[in-house]
Amino acid sequence: MKRYGLIGFPVKHSYSAAMHNAAFKELGIDARYELFELSPEKLKDEFQQLLEDGLCGFNVTIPHKEAIIKLLGRIDREAELIGAVNTIKVDEKKATKGFNTDGLGFIKHLAEIVGFNPQGKKIAILGAGGVAKAVSTQLAKNKVKGILLFDVDREKAKGLVYKLVRNFPETDIRLIAEANALLQDKPDLLINATPVGMHKEDALAIDPGQLHPKLIVYDLIYNPAETPLLREAKRKGCAGIFNGLGMLLYQGALAFKIWLDVEAPVEVMEEALREMITRE
Ligand code: NAP
């Protein structure tokens, strides 16, 4: 039996095992997906141990997406540009290659399901962490007109903006000094790439008075399915309201294809994710 798994800290909240195990079962593949909680101090040794145990592939989540890079043999160009890895393929000789499917998964969901073509659009992003890096890089690659970016950690936001400006000089990329200025320029799409909204009691990270009817709001959080931001966007009649389940599904489907070189059964994986949500 082939073994795959998620490495992170913590990982027990993850839906990835349900999604991938449903896909293996659907296609009759003799494989199992497991969750591995690896603390940052033990990442190197325990990752090595998992390779020796014969794991064939991994997903990587918080806080290891950047730290794992130096433990890998090769890095795909996309992951290198983003500066983070969320998928690892291990070959028969235990050689490793890192990929990033977060940004591509997001764009695929945006284009195929939301029906939003990012080319020429103005995008506002809340947050400059790991997932914001992947999503903003992919949006810039897809020729958006501009990216407006705010993070409470100004240095982190500055670092991401500088990197994007360097890699995509033709795109208008701006660092926004306060959250409430993020929507002033009437962007087409607002993305929440912060954890704000994961808890019921979370305050909104932006002034809801600025949510305008032509705006599409995409919250990368998938649990809860309706965050306070999405609830507010619905009340204000925003043009589209999406949570992070679609991105989770498509990044997983792309990882599956990398590991096994077969198309993932997306509908079965989505069903497994929905089941997990109704169980909570
Ligand atoms: P991360 O690396 O911790 O980045 C989050 C960033 O948001 C941090 O820089 C954080 O700053 C900043 N932040 C916190 N509160 C803020 C606020 N009020 N306004 C502006 N910025 C704020 O986390 P990540 O890996 O990028 O993930 C972010 C969220 O995306 C996760 O919580 C998860 O819900 C979601 N996600 C979804 C998927 C999916 O497939 N749908 C995949 C990955 C992640 P501080 O560090 O200073 O707090």
CATH superfamily of the largest domain: NAD(P)-binding Rossmann-like Domain
Q: What is the third-level CATH name, the topology of the largest domain?
A: Rossmann fold
Q: Identify the bound ligands.
A: NADP nicotinamide-adenine-dinucleotide phosphate
Low-confidence stretches: none
Structural class: alpha/beta
Number of helices: 9
* Number of separate strands: 12
Along the chain, the helix and strand elements come as EHEHEEHEEHEHEHEEEHEHH
List keywords for this structure.
single chain; 280 residues; alpha/beta; Rossmann fold; 2 domains; six-stranded mixed β-sheet; 12 strands; binds NADP nicotinamide-adenine-dinucleotide phosphate
What's the short story on this structure?
This protein has 280 residues and is an alpha/beta fold. The chain is built from nine helices and twelve strands. The two termini are 30 Å apart.
Can you offer a commentary on this structure?
There is one protein chain. The strands form two sheets. This protein has a six-stranded mixed β-sheet. A six-stranded parallel β-sheet has the order 9-8-7-10-11-12, sandwiched between helices. It has two domains: 2-100 and 246-279, Rossmann fold (3-Layer(aba) Sandwich), CATH 3.40.50.10860; 103-243, Rossmann fold (3-Layer(aba) Sandwich). The chain has 280 residues and is of the alpha/beta class. The chain has nine helices and twelve strands. It starts with a strand and ends with a helix. The protein is globular. The protein has helices spanning 16-27, 43-52, 77-82, 102-114, 130-141, 154-167, 228-235, 245-260, 266-279, and strands spanning 2-8, 31-37, 57-60, 74-75, 87-90, 96-99, 122-126, 146-150, 172-175, 189-192, 216-219, 240-242. Helix content is 38%, strand content 19%. The longest helix has 16 residues, at 245-260. NADP nicotinamide-adenine-dinucleotide phosphate (NAP) binds next to helix 5 and helix 8.
